[in-house]
Please model this.
Amino acid sequence: MLDTLRIAVRTTLLTLLVTGLLYPLGMTLLAQLFFPSRAHGSLVTDGKGRVVGSGLIGQRFRSPNYFQPRPSAAGDLGYDAAASSGSNLGPSSHKLRARVEAELKRVRKDNPQASSAIPVDLVTASASGLDPHLSVSAALWQVSRVATARGVATERVRTVILDHVEGRELGVIGEPRVNVLLLNLAMDRQFGQPTGVTN
Amino acid sequence: MSSLLYDLTQILLFCLVILGLTRPLGIYLFRVFESERKPLPRLFGPIERAVFRLCGVDPQREHTWQQYTLALLVFSGFGVLITYALQRLQHLLPLNPQHLGPVAPDLAWNTAVSFTTNTNWQSYSGETTMSYLTQMAGLTWHNFTSAAAGIGVALALARGLTRRPGFIGPRTLGNFWVDVLRSILYVLLPISMIGTLLLVSQGVIQNLSSYRQIITLEGTKQILAMGPVASQEVIKLLGTNGGGFFNANSAHPFENPTALTNLISMVLIFAIPAALTYTYGRMAAAQKQGWVLFGAMAFLFLAGISVLWAAESHGNPALSGLGIDESAGNLEGKEVRFGVVGSSLFATVTTDASCGAVNAMHDSFTPLGGLVPMVNIQLGEVIFGGVGAGLYGMLIFALLAVFIAGLMVGRTPEYLGKKIEAKEMTLSMLYVLIFPLLILGLSAWAAVVPAGLSSLGNAGPHGLSEILYAFTSAAGNNGSAFAGLSANTPFWNVTLGVAMLAGRFLMMVPVLAIAGSMLNKKVVHPGPGTFPTGTLLFCGLLIGVILILGALTFFPALSLGPIVEHFVVKHGRLF
Model:
């Protein structure tokens, strides 16, 4: 018994030191060395070199000039990247249906020219609340609104989207998608930063 | 290529990778634990000797089942205490750039038990509760040790079944400390180190910075949570632990940024549990014995993914008639980059293995989609299962299957030439019964007391599903959740903690007792009345036993939760 206790204490301390401290700290060092940008969150900058977010984390867009992301349950306003969360509403939830209906009303009002059925990702909250992507159809669905707001031809906006479609990885896995922040940055590069947006 | 074909290709690709890894990794594990010829002796040999010396372990001294159990319990006990203390004192300790306060006592207890038992149920949100030191030294550490302990118990049972009694002295089951240390040194740590860098190269973060505040393109503030994520992420998956660094777990883009990391994650979860079946075949000196277990697991896995994927592909019937294009399936609680297939596959894998990481919110799955993860766990976490836990659980079912076959033909049941007698059956039944007793007993209690009901995030049958899922997950040491349940209350933290402890140790101790009792049995040569256990027929019988036992036990409860919800939601009834 005493023997067991002695070994247990020593094994506990050794594994704690190695797997709980040396391993994560050592890997942090190596990660910083080999992949500094990725290890720090793949931050992206705008045309002026200002950091405007992470290329992996979604953010809120309200202006009609920008493509808008999915609804988010992270934090009170959504897209709180320090409070990731899904809605966790069940399929038979009144709250879910009411939220979807409210969202439908809003996006229909904002996009009067888009008449076809609304892609499901535009009215459903993601698992993390930080989903940086839209399906290609959900981005295309917003083309008319963005083109009108920016006063440019629909076709030109559509081209920017299609240039920013990220395909399936290795050709087969995952889903084709568009990163909303990167798409909006590209829109600004192409058509200039919209007025009325403060930054 | 249509979307259906892409979906099938992804499922097939995953299956092929696992199938391809099973033999080489299984052989590697066999050499680590059971062979004199250890892999890479020049590299690992000196480290191993130093580690044994530092810990005071004599690798030649093996344990009886009682000694093995004692070592397991003492080691786990220390684990609970240290992780509890780290959480309570984190505000005084370094590596806490967000200045997070001490964790409340009931939550600290729940988390300490949760990570020690390889459950990784999380009543907390990582980014707002745990300091970097707690995440690393409290939680990442446990991800290694609890996985290693699980492998140890599986090896002990496998040795009990496969070792042949010799001429010298009492037989032993191996040395717990040696098994744990070798698991970490040869298997978990090297794979984790490579995996960390692989994940960081794909965008998983790994730093010790304080949270980064940025001004978004539209000019609002956003705070990006940071941390040493990748190093915890990889062992969370490889050790089938499942405790996410962040609240959203593997759905968080900093934990699982791409479909490729998603595939890597799922492979990490199944790799060791699948390989251990091959290792077991090696130990039994009859590879078919291992493949039979693998086959039963694979069959149940494929059944699960088929139902879950089909259910989620069809979208949520409650949202029909609103003018939504639901051709992409039910995307509430799912990430676009994974889509329905990447989310369904992950949900099946994580609940088959007792991992519990999630890349989609199971609470928002369609009723039948949410039923599958729950059933996967309720079948006993044997569909590949947790590292170690899956193999020993499946072996218990194999003993049951042999016994039932023996009853049918009226002969004494034998497994690998050893007779299965009343004692082993009693212990097996203890193992099998403690599990539903915990789940159904505690669920029934929570469903009638205000302290249980006040935490529900959804009403109607889905509320019952939340309760049932919580105790299923805790007792099965899975850790995933129908996360609408606000589990961070004293009632839930304490009861779930009890379920996790009992679901781990009250099941491990009978397993080790069976190992001890089988160890010294004489081996009889197979006769005409012996039921061969390396055949497709036995594989079918094994699947049957697992399904019948699980279905009979849990069907009544499930029919009041997800099953009734499925039928009413189709008719437009909401709660």
Residues 71 and 176 of chain B are 7 Å apart (CA to CA).
